Automatic annotation (TrEMBL):
It comes from Phytophthora fragariae. Coiled coil: none annotated. SUPFAM superfamilies: Pectin lyase-like (SSF51126). Keywords: Disulfide bond. Its EC number is 4.2.2.10. The keyword Disulfide bond applies. This is pectin lyase. It catalyses: Eliminative cleavage of (1->4)-alpha-D-galacturonan methyl ester to give oligosaccharides with 4-deoxy-6-O-methyl-alpha-D-galact-4-enuronosyl groups at their non-reducing ends.
Length: 177
């Protein structure tokens, strides 16, 4: 499954975090779930954008690339057990906690363009954090060795991370108001 070119606007009058921001933005479970999130704008959320894995029977492999997170008051990534993620070329701006602390799951958060060569045979695009918390790998080698088995993920050619214009024609049918 691919989720791409979408504007996920978390502004709401009904906020679990009492700050006008949506908390449950994405949740990915499943016994054999494979997905990519590419070229999305995720903003004004307070958590779980996305939550990946976390269930004992889950088996979730994800490639999350070239997305733009902005104005997020809580955490973006929440990685649970039985989750393997390659995150590259993403841009985080004004995001308090790009990755919720913990030790479950496996995520490779690219910090340099050459780190993926030994696993994927290609360079990764580094993630960028701007006025945001840290975004670092958790069990990174395990994530890369798992993602390597899925050619749609391992052969993808990501662009360098960049800050997007808040008004763009990149999403769906055009500019969203």
């Amino acid at each position: 499954m691919t989720i791409s070119n979408s504007d996920f606007d978390g502004r709401t009058d009904y906020s679990a975090s009492c700050d006008g921001r949506h908390y449950w933005t994405f949740i990915f479970y499943g016994k054999n779930t494979r997905f990519s999130m590419l070229n999305n704008y995720i903003h004004s959320t307070s958590g779980r954008s996305p939550k990946v894995g976390g269930d004992g029977s889950a088996n979730v492999v994800a490639h999350i690339a070239n997305n733009y997170w902005a104005d997020n008051s809580g955490h973006s990534f929440e990685v649970g057990v039985n989750a393997w993620i390659l995150a590259e070329g993403n841009y985080f701006e004004d995001t308090t906690l790009p990755l919720l602390t913990g030790s479950d799951g496996a995520m490779y958060a690219a910090t340099a363009t050459t780190e993926c060569n030994s696993y994927l045979g290609r360079s990764c695009a580094a993630n960028v954090v701007d006025n945001s918390g840290a975004f670092s790998s958790r069990n990174g080698a395990t994530a890369l060795s798992t993602v390597k088995a899925y050619s749609a993920m391992s052969s993808y050619s990501p662009r360098a991370a960049k800050q997007w214009s808040k008004t763009t024609s990149n999403f769906g049918i055009g500019v969203l108001n």
